[in-house]
Amino acid sequence: MKKIVLVLAIALMGIAVNAQSPRHHNGHGNPEQMVERRVERLDKALQLTESQKAEIAKIYMLEMEAVKKEKQSMAPGDEKPGRPDESVMKARREEMKARRAATDAKIEALLTPEQATKYAEFKRHEGNRRHGRHHDGARQAPRHDGCCCKQSTNQGK
Predict the structure, then answer these.
(1) How many helices (H) and strands (E) does the chain have?
(2) How deeply is 126 buried, as exposed, middle or buried, from its count of CB atoms within 10 A (0-12, 13-18, 19+)?
(3) Average pLDDT estimate for 10-14
(4) pTM (2 decimals)?
(5) Taken in order 27, 30, 33, 39, is the CA torsion positive or negative?
(6) Where residue 73 falls among pLDDT bands split at 50, 70, 90?
(7) Separation between Cα atoms, residue 142 and residue 44, nearest integer Å
(8) In whole angstroms, what is the distance from residue 37 CA to residue 44 CA?
(9) Contact (Cβ atoms closer than 8 angstroms) between residue 34 and residue 28
């Protein structure tokens, strides 16, 4: 009986600690951590200098602040409950595309020609990864073993 009580107490403490830890709304951490991870991925792909990493981190933080301001400007009462109509969604997508293009241009201005070439490939690969696509743009099959991008699955294990 004492062991059960002890296990329950430890479990409850773990839940309480987890609930109190500061997290971003989507579970990816705070904005600084998100920027750090993005810069690390870019550094791994492009072998950035320290000054490039610092400048790119600033660019990403400015982009995140702009997104945050945009979200705050959308007051809850501005829209009816549920999904916004298609014209609003289209306008938001276009704004997001323009913001990403501006961010990409700022980053590309910091890169060497060789890094810029790698950055274009990196963006293509990341975009496909986010949308569940493979190198040729086709949707990935659920079973995707032995890929050059090392996205093997644990099927059959």
Answers:
(1) 5, 0
(2) middle
(3) 69
(4) 0.61
(5) positive
(6) confident
(7) 27
(8) 11
(9) yes
| Angle separating helix axes 50-73 and 31-46, nearest 10 degrees | 140
Q: Which residues contact 113 (CB under 8 A, 6 or more apart)?
A: none
> Whole-angstrom Cα distance, residue 153 to residue 6?
38
Q: Can you list the pairs that 63-67 forms with residues at least 24 positions away whose Cβ atoms lie under 8 Å?
A: 63/99, 63/103, 64/31, 64/34, 64/35, 66/99, 67/99
pLDDT tens-digit profile of 95-138?
Answer: 889 999 999 999 999 999 999 999 999 988 887 766 665 545 55
The C-alpha angle 132, 137, 141, rounded to 5 degrees, equals 50
**85 vs 70, 72, 78, 88, 99, CA distance in Å?**
18, 19, 12, 6, 21
146 Cα distance to chain centroid: 25
Residue from 17, 53, 21 nearest 38 by CA: 53
